[in-house]
């Protein structure tokens, strides 16, 4: 086997409020809430997953809403910007939509592409880029037709304290190809067609610190459990220290931190989010792993209620 990842599986961040986060990522960006569960390591905190209709790998942004968390500072050792890709003809649709919904934007250019940048209510940085590649969405919500909807991740911009080391990881371990350098960033590309473009700052960046408004980790894809086991040996053979493989219910995971300070995960594509809910009902109920089910009543009392709302309908 050639050890190469297809690209990003998911990205996970800290926020404060589940309703505020859902209003932005479902109501504004039109993503589907595909799973409502808990942080398995802190069951008093939700773990919310948003993505395409099925929560396909390469589309999944996830959140730990933690009301009492400190304010984070975006900087070295983090994903600095999460990129979302839309159809090639949808850029102006998104510029108009974000403006109409009161989201401030600015346009930048890198590698010959236009990016529409914004921040969510907690200060997490995102951007929209239009590309031909990548399967189109079949999820329409909140005034966003499927042919204009976000397909998934365009990629991510990594803020590294040691960019040469981070680049070496991406090339030598993750199997990405170095494309070139522009506007102070080095671009790498994976072989998949979503979540496949990773950029790293060319000059070292000062450390950020975690808290709401920052990304906790970036997960890259493994095709299945057999490949996942190979990835663990592969990562360790290159001098990193991967964790044991952990069951996250909807994928298996292993984690390691690289020299630029960024926490990486490698996650399996299967089994996916339909293992405990039917496709038409994804994200509707609080789903708990069996070892927490006996504590459901206590857990539910600790979690703030929220709902998925169509913001355009509320405005009209």
TrEMBL record:
Record domain VOC: where: 7-131, 152-269
Listed Gene3D superfamilies: 2,3-Dihydroxybiphenyl 1,2-Dioxygenase, domain 1
Pfam families: Glyoxalase
GO MF term list: dioxygenase activity
Entry keyword set: Dioxygenase, Oxidoreductase
Name of the featured protein: Ring-cleaving dioxygenase
């Amino acid at each position: 086997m050639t050890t190469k990842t297809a690209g990003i599986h998911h990205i996970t961040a800290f926020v404060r409020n589940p309703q505020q986060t859902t209003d932005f990522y479902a109501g504004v960006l039109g993503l589907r809430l595909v799973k409502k569960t808990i942080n398995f390591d802190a069951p008093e905190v939700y773990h919310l997953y948003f993505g395409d209709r099925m929560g396909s790998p390469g589309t999944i942004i996830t959140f730990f809403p933690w009301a009492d968390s400190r304010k984070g500072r975006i900087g070295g050792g983090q994903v600095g910007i999460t990129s979302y890709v839309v159809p090639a003809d949808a850029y102006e649709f998104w510029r108009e939509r974000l403006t109409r919904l009161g989201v401030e934007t600015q346009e930048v250019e890198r590698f010959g592409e236009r990016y529409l940048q914004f921040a969510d209510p907690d200060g997490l940085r995102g951007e929209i880029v239009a590309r031909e590649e990548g399967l189109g969405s079949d999820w329409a919500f909140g005034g966003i037709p499927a042919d204009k909807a976000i397909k998934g991740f365009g990629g991510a911009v990594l803020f590294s304290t040691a960019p040469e080391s981070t680049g070496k990881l991406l090339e030598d371990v993750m199997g990405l190809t170095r494309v070139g350098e522009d506007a102070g960033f080095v671009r790498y590309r994976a072989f998949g067609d979503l979540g496949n473009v990773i950029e790293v700052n060319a000059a070292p960046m000062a450390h950020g610190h975690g808290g709401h408004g920052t990304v906790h980790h970036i997960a890259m894809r493994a095709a299945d459990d057999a490949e996942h086991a190979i990835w663990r040996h592969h990562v360790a053979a290159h001098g990193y220290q991967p964790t044991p493989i952990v069951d996250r219910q909807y994928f298996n995971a292993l984690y390691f931190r690289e020299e630029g300070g960024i926490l990486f995960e490698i996650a399996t594509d299967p089994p996916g989010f339909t293992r405990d809910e039917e496709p038409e009902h994804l994200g509707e109920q609080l789903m708990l792993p069996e070892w927490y089910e006996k504590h459901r009543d206590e857990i539910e009392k600790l979690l703030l209620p929220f709902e998925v709302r169509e913001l355009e309908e509320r405005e009209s």
